[in-house]
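Notes from the 1:1 (GR / supervisor)

We went over the backlog. Supervisor wanted to see one worked example end to end before approving the batch request, so GR pasted a single chain during the call. The sequence is below; no edits were made to it. Supervisor asked that the structure be written out right there so they could see what the output format looks like.
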Amino acid sequence: MNRWGFNMYLVQNRLPVESEEQLTRLKERFSKAPESMKQVPGFISFRLLQAEDHSHLIAETVFQSKEDFLNWLESDHFKRAHGGKGGERKNANINNYMVIIS
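Structure output shown during the call:
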């Protein structure tokens, strides 16, 4: 828990979209995320956001704590969702935040 009494941790993954086909694939892939993430310890919520100019998506996941996020990165659930690879991807454009007011 942080000094403001919150311990939520928000992760945003920016995904460039280069074609309508790619957009369709990404939307389909992430459509299952809210339900499948419910089994992940510490998971709170998931949203997929689309830029108004359609140039990118933001996959936004909220965890109860940074520790829950880090545990998920090393989990079998993460590996299955990311092609068998654990940990943060090297080419990922990820921003992490502590939620201080909600």
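Supervisor's comment: The domain at 9-98 is CATH 3.30.70.100 (Alpha-Beta Plaits).
Batch request approved.
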